[in-house]
Amino acid sequence: MNAREVVLGRVRRALADVPRGEEPEREPLERGYLESHQPADPVELLAENLADYRALVHRATAGELPGLVARLLAERGASSVVVPAGLPPGWLAEVPDEVRRVADEEAATARLLDGVDSVVTGCAVAIAETGTVVLDAGPDQGRRRITLVPDHHVCVVAVPERVVDSVPLALRRLDPSRPLTWISGPSATSDIELDRVEGVHGPRRLDVVLLGA
Questions:
Q1: Which residues does 12 contact at the CB level (< 8 Å), separation at least 6?
Q2: Which of 89, 128, 176, 177 satisfies CB 3.0 to 4.6 Å to 42 for a cystine?
Q3: Which stretches make up the LUD domain (predicted)?
Q4: How far is CA 102 from CA 38, 114, 134, 209, in A?
Q5: Tens digits of per-residue pLDDT, 151-191?
Q6: Whole-model pTM above 0.85?
Q7: Edge-first strand listing for the sheet containing 125-127
Q8: The domain 40-211: what is its CATH number?
């Protein structure tokens, strides 16, 4: 008996008590884990975990947001910014006119975006327990590529309405047929010597603005 026959034999024995007509993908699966550990303050936990992933966390009210966005772009020396079609126009109201606005459109290729300094978006949902921001290509987020190529991403999270405790709760809000981008801090990787390199698969700097009352 060879290894293949041994493995297949074990599979047959494991499936011996399964009814012949049963389709596993249609059978309900009991999930006994908690959907949330119910943190006392999800927004504070989100801020803590975002910072732990080296994102820069800021807080602002609606009135303070335009000035903050302008300052964050100025600190990066941004001379151009990608603007999703559905981004609230007031968010960039205090950004100087000399900062070139680049529309999120089909003509915005990866080569073109590589020459753009920053991008400003909203988000679909933010997960407190993992410090993750999820984009789903909504009107205020735009195409996936505009948040992967520019070196600087300013992501505005409305709190508390866009914040959930956990990944299972986030999945309830998200449409799996949409292009989902899960972001936990600036893009980073390590080589074989564990030297951290940022900006390889996405933005080198991530500014997250918690927009509240």
A1: none
A2: 128
A3: 44-211
A4: 41, 12, 22, 21
A5: 999 999 999 999 999 999 999 999 999 999 999 988 777 77
A6: no
A7: 163-164, 125-127, 132-135, 181-183
A8: 3.40.50.10420
